[in-house]
Design a protein that fits this description.
The complex is a heterodimer. By secondary structure, chain A is mainly beta. In chain A, strands 2, 4, 5, 6, 9, 10 and 11 form a 7-stranded mixed β-sheet that branches. Helices cover 0% and strands 61% of the residues of chain B. In chain B, strands 2, 4, 5, 9, 10 and 11 form a 6-stranded mixed β-sheet that branches. At the A-B interface, strand 4, strand 5, strand 9 and strand 10 of A face strand 4, strand 5, strand 9 and strand 10 of B.
């Protein structure tokens, strides 16, 4: 059974903290994605990676960075968390082919106080 | 930038009624996918459309891809309570094959 695992289901952090969200996939997928989900706004792409150490900005990269040192792991970093980054964060992976489906992790509900 | 919008944002139907959600892109899509997210869950792939004018069916669900490849729709016939969730379209644009852009989603509520 294919799996995308996010390190935390729920997370509460303080404003100004550096936050790491981890995602691991076991499908040997080249492409990995980080989205945030907010009511009425759908899934918005923050960053994606198409290979180890390769990344591209998505539609809302401000305030975020990413790291992909190994193929199976894609980390999202909030350099200095702010309350407007309170959201559901979803990681996804897929093969490097536009015709393949994306597999999602269970999501991390991040609250910044 | 490339955007994918969906309407309506929310729909509440009685069980047995039909439901349709529409997906519109600002630019031509190379293909479109549909996902369903159950309450408390994560998006799960339903289907993919690639060709202009393509129509696909999955039991009570009918998916269409527009002739210009800029819009798509999902129609559910005779909704059931198991159809509850949020439906997302997601597209890839020509020249940015790796990037998968999701729509704003339509949340469906079905009551008896």
């Amino acid at each position: 059974d294919v799996k995308v695992t996010q390190s935390s289901r729920y997370l509460v952090k303080r404003t100004g903290e550096k936050v790491f969200l981890e995602c691991v996939q076991d499908m040997d997928h080249e492409n990995m994605f980080w989205y945030r989900q907010d009511p009425g706004l759908g899934l918005r792409l923050i960053y994606f990676s198409y290979d180890v150490k390769m990344k591209e900005k998505g539609d809302i990269p401000e305030g975020y960075s990413v790291s992909r040192e190994k193929k199976e792991r894609f980390s999202l970093i909030l350099e200095s968390a702010s309350t407007n980054q309170t959201s559901m964060y979803l990681c996804a992976s897929r093969r490097p082919d536009r015709l393949t489906e994306a597999f999602f992790g269970q999501g991390t509900r991040l609250t910044v106080v | 930038g490339q955007q994918v919008m969906q309407i309506p944002q929310y729909q509440h139907v009685q069980e047995g009624e039909d439901f349709t959600t529409y997906c519109n892109s600002s630019t031509t899509l190379s293909n479109i996918q549909w996902y369903k997210q159950r309450p408390g869950g994560h998006p799960v792939f339903l289907i993919q459309l690639v060709k202009s004018g393509e129509v696909k069916k999955q039991k009570r669900l009918t998916f269409q891809f527009g002739e210009a490849k800029k819009n798509s729709s999902l129609h559910i016939t005779a909704t059931q309570t198991t159809d509850v969730g949020t439906y997302f379209c997601a597209g890839s644009f020509t020249g940015t094959a790796s990037k998968l852009t999701f729509g704003t989603g339509t949340r469906l509520q079905v009551t008896l």
